[in-house]
Amino acid sequence: MAKVNITIDRIRKEDVSHVLGIIRGLPEWFILNAVAEIKEAAKRLPGFVARVGDVVRGFIILEERECCVEIAWLAVEKGFQGRGLGTLLLRAAESYACSKGKPVLTVKTYGGMDYEPYLETLAFYKKKGFKLYEVVEEYKPFNGQPAAILIKTLDCRKPFE
């Protein structure tokens, strides 16, 4: 199999339509109102895209908090999952957090332990060093659905590969 050229770049205005296309292709992970929320977030928050060749195939949007950097949104196009794009996007987020002097990365995701796509999501984050901090049973921003809160402490003294 030929080596695929993957690059990670800061998200730009012209990338937003590709980001929204990725979301629309993942209905088992994202409800319809996520499109509007992500469109707004991609315009005002820092983030990165993973390009395969010249095409955006994944993205991560970050929100800087007082104590940490939170992953607001992360997705990889279905046909490109499992190829390392999510890992590269997480590395970019970790590097960004360290550059801001915030050695903690957090993420909130659906916390229902009975839905296979989110069990995969939790497994991905845990494999990348995140620890489950808490499951909030009725999280208002998730329309009263459960939310899993995960945390990763970063070692900002070592360079990110």
Descriptive notes:
- The chain has helices spanning 16-24, 33-44, 85-99, 116-127, and strands at 6-10, 47-52, 55-64, 69-76, 104-110, 131-139, 145-153.
- The protein has a single domain (6-153), classed as 3-Layer(aba) Sandwich (Aminopeptidase), CATH 3.40.630.30.
- It starts with 5 loop residues before the first strand and ends in an 8-residue tail after the last strand.
- Strands 1-2-3-4-5-7-6 form a 7-stranded mixed β-sheet, with helices on both faces.
- Helices cover 30% and strands 34% of the residues.
- The radius of gyration is 15 Å and the shape is globular.
- The chain is an alpha+beta fold.
- The model has no long low-confidence stretch (mean pLDDT 87).
Topology (SSEs and partners):
Layout: E1 6-10, H1 16-24, H2 33-44, E2 47-52, E3 55-64, E4 69-76, H3 85-99, E5 104-110, H4 116-127, E6 131-139, E7 145-153
Parallel strand pairs: 4-5
Antiparallel strand pairs: 1-2, 2-3, 3-4, 5-7, 6-7
Helix pairs in contact: 1-2
Short key terms for the protein model shown above:
single chain, alpha+beta, Aminopeptidase, 4 helices, 30% helix, globular
